[in-house]
Amino acid sequence: MKEKIKEYCLIIVGVFLVALSLEYFFIPNNIAAGGLTGLAIVINHYIPSISTGPLVFIMDLVLFIVGFIFLGKSFGVKTIVSSFSLAGMMTIIEKFFNPQALTEDLMLASIFGTFITAIGMAIVFNANASTGGTDTIAKILNKFFHIDIGKSLLAVDFIITLLGAITFGINIGLYGLISVIINGIAIDKVIEGFHVCKEVTIISSKNDEIGKFIMNDLERGCTYLKGVGGFTGKDTYVLYAVLGRSEFIKLKQHISKIDPRAFITVGEVHEVMGEGFRNIQ
């Protein structure tokens, strides 16, 4: 139950960041940086009586069925929450806060708007949801074709960016394209950052004690690998484990107390699946 509440709280935070970037960077500057929001900006230009918030909500309904069919009930419910939240937040901001562009410099608007959007969308994706629309299509491509979400989003949003260029001119269209490209790359990098773990190999005379600390205190698994010392020619064991950042700090402190002469190598892994980590599915 706590995990579900945490996921929905993260979704709301991520959606809020996306709404802020849209209302204060993209929409006032007519930058159609892909997605249904980009398409809504284009439609709003031709039909100004319909604001972007309700437009996003209407178009999202069309893709909800696709999300339910291909991504399962859990994803569909979360996506409904995030999509309703995004449309609702955008509508509230438009009605009550009269949003204005924080900067009219198109380059600054593209860069800052894109990075805020990327962080927000990465938080939402990491909670196994999307902000709806083209995000759902990107998630489907990721699931069935194993294409990175950022790259999937880039491919899907390219057409909408072209529509923006036709509507608002090639200059603004190119800024929209920059935003789409940066957004695709940034989302993957932010998501990778959420899952970075430490891959640790240890050679120590106290391997048994270190192994017990990893399993009992850190509640992580570890593996003993047989080896032969190149200098001594003696049999030895190499301890291998994958830990979270905070867990590695605790392990390092423990090893420094019991065997300061231990040999340790540490690397970063960007995704770990299996028992104790993310489900392989």
Automatic annotation (TrEMBL):
GO CC, alphabetical: plasma membrane
InterPro entries linked: DUF2179, N-reg_PII/ATP_PRibTrfase_C, UPF0750_membrane, YitT
CDD domains named in the record: YitT_C
One Pfam family cited in the UniProt record for this chain: DUF2179
Statement: the UniProt record of this protein carries the keyword Transmembrane helix: yes
Keyword Protein biosynthesis: no
Membrane topology qualifier: Multi-pass membrane protein
Alphabetized UniProt keyword annotations: Cell membrane, Membrane, Transmembrane, Transmembrane helix
Membrane spanning residue stretches: 7-25, 54-71, 106-125, 158-182
Subcellular location: Cell membrane
Record Gene3D superfamilies: 3.30.70.120
Domain DUF2179 positions: 220-274
Database matches in PANTHER family: UPF0750 MEMBRANE PROTEIN YITE, UPF0750 MEMBRANE PROTEIN YITT-RELATED
Protein name: DUF2179 domain-containing protein
